[in-house]
Amino acid sequence: MNATATTETRKFEAEVAQVLHLVTHSLYSHKEIFLRELISNASDACDKLRFESIAHPELATLGSELHIDVSWDSQARTVTISDNGIGMTRDEVIANIGTIASSGTKRFLEAMSGEQKADARLIGQFGVGFYSAFVVADKVTVRSRHAGAAASEGVQWESDGKGEYSLVQVSLPESGTSVVLHLKADEDEFLKRWQLRSLITKYSDHVAFPIRMPIEKDDKPTDEWEIINAASALWTKPKSEISDDDYKSFYKSLGHDFNEPLAWTHNRVEGSQSFTTLLYLPAQPPFDLMMGGRDERKGLKLYIKRVFIMDAAEELLPNYLRFVRGVVDADDLPLNVSREILQHNRQLERIKAACVKRVLDLIEKLARDEPEKFATFYKAFGNTLKEGISEDANNRERIAKLLRFASTKGEGTQQTVSLDDYIGRMAIGQEAIWYITADSYAAAFGSPQLEAFKAKGIEVLLMFDRIDEWMIGSLSEYEGKKLKSAAKGDVPLDDADKAKQEEATKEAEPLLKKLKDLLGDRVGDVKVSARLTDSPSCLALSDYEMAPHLARLLREAGQDMPESKPTLEINPQHALVKRVESETDDAKAKDLALLLLDQAEIAAGAQLPDPSAFVQRMNRVLLGT
Ligand code: ADP
Ligand code: MG
User: Fold this and answer.
1) Which of 618, 515, 525 is nearest to 572 (CA)?
2) What residue owns the CA closest to ligand 1's atom 13?
3) How many independent structural domains does the chain possess?
4) The pTM is what?
5) d(CA 235, CA 305)
6) Nearest CA owner, ligand 1 atom 3
């Protein structure tokens, strides 16, 4: 076919129209981002062609001088971004920019319209970057020819971004893609060379392909082209030649984060297997991580001898380090690797272990030398890191060393106490590291189970992040010291306590029996507590029992949790307990006994089985009726 080809008009998918609307409205204050997004697509297309030409050498000649051109036309009021990368077939154009196949659209819509509005500048994370073109353009023309396809098989896509687009077959002399932006009336600033140029340097300096612009003469573009960006694979340079600013701008060019990185580590390993890693810690969680998204992990790019192979975060990093961004460039992997091969590749295992080591080294260094940065890191990713305690048994001690907690001897709610700090100030004769889990700082700190610990000056770590209860299940020991829950099992703190408690139990036998009778099958057992000094009662869990606050959360999340009967511990010295003891009226004694249990359950964050019965009971006691 040729110029007589008919034009077909199609409607955008409903979701695309929605995305377009959101993008154009929410990105308006950062409209220059369109250039970064379109250059990033052009760069991806060049990467793809370079990769394709490994398996199809006949494409290689096409790709020998991959580049990206940015030009402008003041008369026509257009800006054009073109590349000689992989290009698109007609079907691909429809699939890639007329519909949005990836889950990106959905996530983007959720993020942008949800309560917690995403920063629109993060658009690149969602796979909808192309549409940023419509922030500055009221018409966009895409011409594309797939590498290897005949000149006549070009396709032209055009749209005003208002719900429809047109498609027509055209003849294109070269393969690749060009995107022509017909600028809106008030967007003349993008017709200035210096403006485009400064945006390229700002956002795209480290794109690995040359970005070229026409040289200007008498205010007009000429036929001569000049390379604008650094266009080098930064990680291949010697460290001594890279400035902090280079590292920072390279990080931004990776395209996942608009902010500066917190820290980075750049290493070259030479030997039987040589590779380079450049790994970054972000300063803030990316949107995905905040949303709990674990699928589609992006952010770590695998190169083989400078050829981009794929996003391989999952193959190169364990889940608990999924916040790490960067580049791994291996010398010795076969260029035609597939994801399947990668998953079982021994060389890759070694690279992965090296990445983990580098990242942990880096975090350790922050903890040691840069406490403020470490605090920023920990706030953003501490809870993610905790997953490593169960996920990475080999590095468990190293990870545990990095954890920070609030503590009965710490600074309020701040999580700053390390296990080493704790061990360093353990009392003589103290063997265990004591902790308690709860669903808030207040619930942990105020827990009646800690009274005896506080009275004796024994420090207890206060854990109130949701993951803690789960994490601690995999951390039974640290530096040879057992970690023990202050809420579980028997806690006679020393031999003297033990003797005292035995005596108290003997003395309280009739009382214990009375309580058991009154409470019936609401409790498994009633015991004299070694934990309490001020409160009348608390719950005690067996070593393997789940903390009540967690059981409640899981139940609320719809999980079937077995009903377990709690052990109630009482403080026989407490006036309220004494009142139960002396109360002769059965009904009144029962109310009092149940209130002892109710308040123990409330303090432990458990769910009261019958809240209205509790309220009535409390009112009867308050009124003395
Ligand atoms: P993303 O780049 O995250 O996939 P975009 O909205 O930026 O999302 O682009 C959508 C898709 O359109 C790309 O994945 C790619 O398949 C296709 N595409 C966009 N620009 C180009 C280009 N210059 N060359 C080839 N394909 C492109
Ligand atoms: Mg893109």
Assistant:
1) 515
2) 96
3) 4
4) 0.76
5) 11
6) 127
